[in-house]
Design goal:
Oligomer: heterodimer
CATH architecture of chain B: Beta Barrel
Structural class of chain B: mainly beta
Strand content of chain B: 35-45%
Order of helices and strands of chain B: HEEEEE
Strand order of the largest sheet of chain B: 3-2-1-4-5
Order of helices and strands of chain A: EHEHHEHEHHHHHEEEEHEHHHHEE
Number of helices of chain A: 14
Shape of chain A: globular
Largest sheet of chain A: 9 strands, mixed
Number of domains of chain B: 1
Helix content of chain B: under 10%
Strand order of the largest sheet of chain A: 3-2-4-7-1-8-11-10-9
Chain lengths: 382, 98
């Protein structure tokens, strides 16, 4: 598989009160189109990734809405898979391009979350969970807390081991001007932050954010000297697991990620040891740890060692979440999966400034939905 | 929104033979959704019932919790009572006492 990344774009993530959903989508789209040196009229289709606009703003039909904003009236569709919406939109663009039906696709992930109170948003996010979990008063932090409790009990790790993931991701974000929280934090600050759902503190959890991210992707037949593409997608895979935690075989494993990873590695004819750097879905600290194990970088029960032993820092043997991850760069739900691929592509094109890794040859992005009910993985190279 | 038909449809299981259950995991929720504010902080757990069914629900009347602990599934009213309106029953858990 080979799909060209012609252009990337990402807005600042954070509390962006002056900008609407459409404003953010347009800003990211413009960046990507300018980067690709392409007009909107050269785009064959737009794919919009978004989870919550229907829930909180009563606005669906985003293909048409964003098309209107961009002055585009070709095929336009919204794609939803909870927090994996972004990755799914990228995957569906890849599939459409491989089919030959479209030549160039603009993918935009966008979310507007800070117009409302955080407990209202927390309730809206539970649309990605099971009904039984909702009526019992669970929240997303508590779903991952249930997993973290079992993991900590089984593998004997401490809360400070979880906290190290946030400390690392904040360190990376301190090198990234578009991050929501571009500053470092300490383990003590994580452990002293208010308890959200034990054992997860506030700073174990990714924030509520606004933001958008965009990619111009093209079929390789349409790459030329006019439209060069130094970064390509060489694998795209998706898998699922049960929605309800009650139906999971092992609460300490992300089976959807394991299965998608296997397919992705197979497509690219590589293995975990060939990956130089990664963007993973750290919606909560425990999620990064479980992802690193599911992706085959660490054995079961050892993923926590990455941040603790500094192996997953910028200068380590496998940099993870150089963007700052979801925790420190921000997590506007629908935008995240697209932003992960943007980060990988920008690193591969040597555009990451202070957070640039010297190892950028093959990068992997892992995006999950809900408590791991969906997983999408992309692998890129330069 | 409470739909009587949906509630009726979702309640088609039996609790007979389900106790004691085993607590597989739990968490104390401090930051609760709207509608649960007056209960916060409260505990929730994932329990495997004796008949093999696994259920997620709130834990009540517990002083301390430990993974592997025996739990009893009980019927409780979930929603606040209005003069007219649907009553929503569901399963909650309390520590198993012989």
């Amino acid at each position: 598989m080979k799909i060209a990344v012609l252009g990337t774009g990402v807005t600042k993530f954070g509390e962006i009160w002056e900008k609407s959903l459409a404003d953010l989508a347009k800003e990211a789209a413009r960046q990507a189109l300018d980067d690709a040196n392409i007009e909107i009229s050269d785009i064959d289709a737009i794919f919009i990734a978004n989870m919550l606009a229907g829930e909180i703003e009563n606005q669906v039909h985003l293909g048409s809405l964003i098309g209107e904003e961009l002055g585009f009236n070709g095929p336009a569709i919204r794609i939803e898979g909870a927090c994996a919406s972004g990755g799914m939109a990228v995957r569906n663009a890849v599939l459409s391009l491989l089919s030959g039906e479209y030549r160039r696709i603009l993918v935009i992930g966008v979310e507007k979350m800070t117009d409302y109170q955080s407990d209202q948003i927390g309730e809206a996010l539970m649309a990605a969970a099971d009904e039984e979990e909702r009526v019992a008063g669970l929240t997303f932090p508590s779903l991952f807390a249930l997993m973290a409790k079992v993991y900590m009990d089984k593998y004997k790790i401490k809360r400070s081991d979880l906290a190290q993931v946030s400390v690392k991701n904040h360190f990376h974000a301190s090198l990234n001007p578009k991050a929501q929280f571009p500053f470092q934090i300490t383990i003590e600050q994580v452990l002293q932050s208010p308890m959200v759902a034990d054992p997860l503190h506030l700073f174990d959890c990714s924030p509520i954010s606004d933001g958008a991210s965009a990619l111009v992707l093209a079929n390789m037949n349409y790459v030329s000297q006019v439209y060069p593409c130094p970064a390509t997608i060489i694998a795209s895979a998706q898998s699922s697991d049960t929605l309800s935690l009650t139906k999971r075989k092992d609460l300490t494993r992300l089976i959807s990620v394991e299965k998608a990873a296997k397919k992705a590695y197979q497509t690219a004819s590589i293995g975990p040891k060939d990956i130089d750097f990664v963007e993973v879905h750290d919606c909560f600290t425990i999620a990064e740890i479980m992802a690193l194990e599911a992706l085959g970088f660490y054995q079961q029960g050892e993923g926590w060692q990455g941040a603790v032993k500094k192996e997953t820092y910028l200068e380590g043997k496998l940099p993870v979440n150089l963007s700052g991850g979801l925790k420190a760069f921000g997590h506007p739900v629908g935008a995240t999966g697209v932003k992960q691929v943007v980060e990988i592509a920008d690193q591969l094109r040597d555009r990451a400034g202070k957070r640039q890794t010297s190892k950028a040859r093959i990068g992997l992005a892992e995006n999950i939905g809900g408590a791991g009910g969906s997983a999408v993985i992309h692998i890129l190279t330069n | 929104m409470y739909s009587p038909v949906k509630i009726w449809r979702s309640k088609k299981y039996k609790l007979a033979g389900s106790n004691p259950g085993r607590l597989l995991s739990f968490s104390i929720i401090h930051a609760s959704p709207p509608g649960f504010k007056d209960q916060a902080p409260y505990s929730v757990g994932l329990v495997e019932l004796k008949n093999g069914l696994r259920v997620i629900g709130q834990i009540v009347e517990a002083e301390s919790l430990k993974i592997g602990q025996k739990m009893k599934a009980v019927f409780r009213i979930f929603n606040p009572q209005e003069k007219e309106g649907v009553i929503y029953y569901g399963i909650k858990f309390k520590p198993w006492k012989k």
